[in-house]
Amino acid sequence: MPPNDILPLALRTVTAWLVTLLLFFPLGWLFLTSFKTELQAIHVPPLFVFHPTMENFGEVQRRSDYLLYARNSLVTSLGSTVLGLLIAVPAAYSMAFFKTRFTRDILMWMLSTKMMPAVGALVPIYVLAQTAGMLDSVPALIIVFTLSNLPIMVWMLFTSYKEIPGEILEAARMDGATLWKEFVHVVLPLSVGGLASTGLLCLVLSWNEAFWALNLTSAKAGTLAVMIASYSSPEGLFWAKLSAASTMAIAPIIVFGWLCQKQLVQGLTFGAVK
User: Fold this and answer.
1) Is the peptide bond before 45 cis (omega within 30 degrees of 0)?
2) 271 near 161, Cβ under 8 Å?
3) Does residue 33 belong to any structural domain of this protein?
4) Is residue 2 part of a domain?
């Protein structure tokens, strides 16, 4: 390597590591604080060396039914992802291979709904859920999460289907394949990666969703976001217990995201210039 290239490479490497550490610091500090006592958590200056304790995790389990909130998060995430895929797959298929002059406009309109603040739809959705008797219920969250993620799911699957060569579909049609056989035996096998990436991304988004969970549920159907919010009291924040509850809430999805990072990155780069 020429000497003139060593310094720029070193600067880029150091900058990349600094940015990485900066992004990781909040999670690392959250993890450390969860093993502190309340006095250690609010100590000034902050303590980096301390005797760790597990009492915060025990207190969270005693005060909150962690398994109930975790189960609700898992059910709503999986349910909304499966329901969303059942709707998004045929919608994206029709838009990709049976385009009309309104296809692009519909896609743009669907994506534009993601730019609208969720609070703008809070009152009508709350009234609908109350009228239907679905407040503080898991099915209500599944429906809302599905509708919230549906534009992204349709767009990701649409871009995935567009990467399938049209010649393959034409050959299948010339061989006498019906629309159903073409979809099942040609399109689906070629788009398994796109389906997996879309499902994984929407699973993560549903797990992390807090706004609708906090406003439409309480104790019975609350997700882990509701459990975390319960540690904010009028007396103030209990930083150590709040950190322990947050660690217990985000640990499963962080591990899941780390294991599936390749598929998630693939899903986020569909249609990008490569």
Assistant:
1) yes
2) no
3) no
4) no
Closest CA to 150 of 188, 197, 199: 199
Contact 245, 64 (CB under 8 A): yes
Residue 18 has pLDDT above 80, yes or no: yes
Q: What Rg do the C-alpha atoms of the chain give, in angstroms?
A: 23
**Residue 233, φ and ψ in degrees, nearest 5:** -125, 165
- 49 CB-near residues (< 8 Å, 6+ apart): none
Domain-located, residue 26: no
* Domains: count for the chain: 1
Is the residue at 27 inside a domain? no
Q: What are phi and psi of 142, to 5 degrees?
A: -60, -45
Q: Is 100 exposed, middle or buried (0-12, 13-18, 19+ CB in 10 A)?
A: exposed
232 against 242, higher pLDDT: 242
Q: In the predicted model, is pLDDT for residue 267 greater than 90?
A: no
State pTM to two decimals.
0.83
- Domain encompassing residue 221: 57-268
